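In this supplementary section we document a worked example of the pipeline. Step one takes a protein sequence of length 267 as its only input; no multiple sequence alignment statistics are reported here. Step two produces a three-dimensional model, which step three serialises into structure tokens for compact storage. The input and output of this example are shown verbatim.
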Amino acid sequence: MPPLLTSPALTQIEGVVHGFSTRQGGVSFGQDALNLSYRGDDTVRNVAENRRRVAQALGEGPILSVHQVHGTKIVSAKDLPPSVWSAPEDIQALPEADGLWSNVPGHCLGVMAADCCPVLIADKRSARIGAAHAGWKGAVSGVLDNLVAALCAAGSKPQDLVAALGPTIAWDSYEVGPDFPQQVLAQSSVNQRFFKPSPQRNGHHLFNLPGYIESQLSALGVGLVDNLGQDTLSQADRFFSYRHARQNNLPDFGRMMGLIALTSPSS
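The serialised model returned by step three reads:
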């Protein structure tokens, strides 16, 4: 079975299983790669097998996902169309969203990433879980605000929520252009702490995406935030990375998943 990284904080919550996939343990790209996305040059057969292996490793499945668009919309797993179960490869039939939540045992929520941050959340006192894809656009625009709000609207309290940040492009790997900081600093000048000068190019900066996400979750009152601290760009043999693929003129790149489920009665 493919290896799944786990958060010590989420592991302690009874009735919740989770994991963050790597690029290892699959059948894709002629490299035994574990690509979990139906977008790109991989075959439907390969991705279906990779997802089967991940669901087996997690002990729950099938995987419920959405058509991610770097936005802020969160959907309830209960409201997903039947095609999510019967034809997950039909991306256009999926709702455009960047997060899901559920209170139903057996629902396995999955969000894809390949440098962006997969964020998993569980309520330590109530059977309620969520997952969000948080790239810089979604994070700045409020995807995490909306996920926490959806969980709280369903009955959770922020202080009871436990969040985990999966493999993400790290501060020293994430170079951004001269105009980028203004989009983050427009929220608050305090956000200057998430930038430092790039050692490679004058006028460019390095952005601390996981640090920014941690601060957002803390500001939302989330009780515990656990960052796995794994850099996708500098570990190309272990993780998929969009930026690594572009820097090396690779024709395609795979995507990993953050996965979380409430254990089903048969588990």
